[in-house]
Specification:
The protein has about 325 residues and is α+β, with helices and mostly antiparallel strands. The protein is about 35% helix and about 30% strand. It contains ten helices and 13 strands. The strands form two sheets. Strands 1, 2, 3, 4, 5, 6, 7, 8 and 13 form a nine-stranded mixed β-sheet that branches. The structure holds (3R)-3-hydroxy-3-methyl-5-(phosphonooxy)pentanoic acid (PMV). The site of (3R)-3-hydroxy-3-methyl-5-(phosphonooxy)pentanoic acid (PMV) has 13 residues, from helix 6.
Length: about 325
Amino acid sequence: MERVATAPAKAILFGEHAVLYGAPAIAVAVDLRAKVALNDADEWRLNGQPLDPSENPHLSSLIRWASAENRPQDIHVVSEIPIASGLGSSAALCASIGALLEGTPSSKERIARAAHSSEVEAQGGRASPVDTSTVTLGGAVVVSNDQWPGIEHCWDVDLSGPDGDRHWAIHSLSLSPQLKSIPLVIGSTGKGSSTAKMVASVAARMHESDFRASMDRLVTCAEDSIHLLLEGDPISIGEAMNRCHALLREIGVSSPEIEALIEAALPYSLGAKMTGAGGGGCILALTQDPDSCAHAIRCAGGEAFITTMGAEGVRIENFSENL
Ligand code: PMV
């Protein structure tokens, strides 16, 4: 009997880079989904090919976590989420597969922890739980160093890695119906970039006092955005996105491709900003005119996806307990 699960993409709305210097990161699940189907098989297969553990470290880790080594599965993946674009495609796959691998349906916390551990293992010990907790919980998620007052605290994550001991508090922030109904257009530059390199380029300049002052403003912008999201006024949130983007540009993590898409989207948007590590990847535009905004992004050379914020997290579509 086939088992099926789906999980959404994620976009960082506020707090990229600043999260590494004390700010909260606020990410939303968006309604582009990855779908995974599992069927009993004689050997582990992924989309019709024998599973190569060295090429799929995420999967190997999940299989060990679920003690599923002796229950081989044919894994079939279909995804609307562009890969390597900062939209959490690997987290969505890990969460969907993690949701299906155990004998009985697992809790969201358990799935999120397993998906995060598999990302940590696959990324040499360095991965924040932002992507995996957002695609698992859905809605809007706040990840901070300490518990944040006034929003629902879900669980904590601790990690000992090459950068020392890290602690994160995971929260779920509820978005107003009005915010959930306003389209978020995602524009992809089509250019990949390395998160590790972008993070290192920022770290290398943190001793410069002007640079440090820009980072402090970015931290404040991310903190303020939590209040704006709770208040739910799209116009103020759009303005905060513009302010945040200007600061990200100031710290040098934008790129000519990102700037071209921002310039194209802005006339049709309440606000627009890059999302994630930068240097390539995607932009986000909050807009009441998604068709014109998407058209402008395409004319500027990008790929556009019209989405809404606050999509449901990982969801089991079909589950038979006799694996
Ligand atoms: O582009 P992404 O989705 O990998 O986002 C990276 C976010 C950073 O703040 C730049 C790095 C991090 O580990 O939080």
